[in-house]
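Exercise 7. Given the components listed, write out the predicted structure of the assembled complex. Treat all entries as one system.
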Amino acid sequence: MLSRPATQTQITHLQRLWLYVLVGLVFLFLIVPCLIVIPMSFSGSKYLEFPPRTWSLQWYEAYLGSPEWRAATFVSLRAALLTTLFATTLGTIAAYGIARVHGAVSSLARGVFMLPMLVPLILLAIGCFFVYAKIGLNGTTTGLVLAHTMLALPFVVIAVLSGLASYDMNQERVAQSLGASRPWAFLTVTLPQIRLSVLSGALFAFVTSFDEVVIALFITGGQNATLTRLMFANIRDQIDPTVAAISSLLIGLSILLLVGSQLLLRKGARK
Amino acid sequence: MTMTLDHPGTLPAAAPNADALQRQGARERRALASLTLPGAALIFVVLILPIGWLFWQSFFGAAGQPTLENYARMLKPVYVRTFVTTFEVSGLVTLACVLLGYPVAYLLAQLPERLAGLLMIFVILPFWTSVLVRTYAWLVLLQRTGIINTWLVDAGLISEPLPLVHNMLGVVIGMVHVMLPFLILPLYASMRAIDPVYMRAAANCGATPAQAFRQVFLPLSLPGLAAGVGLVFVLCLGFYVTPALLGGGRVSMWAMQIADNISVYGNWGAASSLGVVLLIVTGIILYAFKRLFRTENFGGTR
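Answer.
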């Protein structure tokens, strides 16, 4: 087996064993920090240890029992759901416009919608902080959702554009020639066919908002602090094992979303 | 009945009709373009307006007088040290990402698609996990009483815990973990696009595996590598969360300097000018890599 050729250049598996070992180590490096917190969060002692000598749910109880953590979780979830709703709507209709209009307008719009991905987050954070201070949006859900929606737009636009790229726009023309209005043709003919792209854009929007730290650090606080903001302050100032429990829950959520997005991809590929 | 007549095939030759159709086409294009307006308006209000204001603000002093002192201040040693640290860390992280990421993308690109897709989970799961959670995990692993130090001490390999975090090493390790998927994913995609037949041809012409790799595969993979390198380097320059948590106050990077100028000193002029320069440097690097990427692409495949 090991002496068989592995590639087109007839190099054998044995000759490039080092490559397999190296790649395996990189995989370990990538995956261990994503998973190690989970067993530690069930530790029964007062400190984090690996492997835990005794098991308990004390840090999960500490998380669920704290009004502060619960409030922050609620703020984050609400912001993420609203962001998903707005970013998916605005992003989908914008992507539709960009895909249908050709020429300079289209490439200009494409460029504008990519900006939130290119500008360093710290600048968006302090910029929003200042502008919001003038119009009284600091510490409000509205301000947070507006900023997160802006941040999520590129992901939705990219996802929907890729869906529209393999969609035959003539179908909509047929619907219109049969008497459907333009919005009705879009909703009943186009949207069902690009729904997987729209869904994966929505998934990205949710994660973008839920995991966002830097903007939340500047424009939220007190009653309106997000979960990530609270975690950031907690990690910086002390190592509270409660964060391990929250992290484990977030990792569980990431795995769920990852599986969801992979299923979407797979379904999209089969179509 | 709202029949659309902008299809080229339906254009009749008669002049008056063509004129009307053209007007209708223009109206339709305007309607379609206006679909981007709500999103664009949002981007204007929470991105372009604030950045424009930062730019404006950077030319005014604390008392509101127009001045260039905010930019002159950047030549002070404390700022210069921040810039040097930022470029040093970004360079190290990018280099480590190339050294670790290239072999991974290379191997994955050669495996059957199903297996590669399965192994891709190792790259995509970190990608989907919050940066904050991963940074916290690194802190747990690397700190004085962390897992790695505890194990090494218990095994008798070291007598004193190693300083693995709250310094440059910790920042680099944490950042490599965040950036690695950003390098592997585009690189993998571009390597998949390289036809394996080239490598067989090289072998048929008598090249050893090492020669075939160096002279055929490596040059073809450079555009994808350049795209990943540019992206990772630029993301590193403006990165805040991981250096702030793993640097322990000893590693001062560009984004932290901006944040501190606001939250600690309340110095908007200094923060704005630092931000403007960061934005310009980011833009120049992205543009340069895009140009390089394109020219490489032409030179490499044609």
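Discussion: The longest helix of chain B spans residues 77-110. Confidence is low (pLDDT under 50) at residues 1-5, 8-12, 295-302 of chain B.
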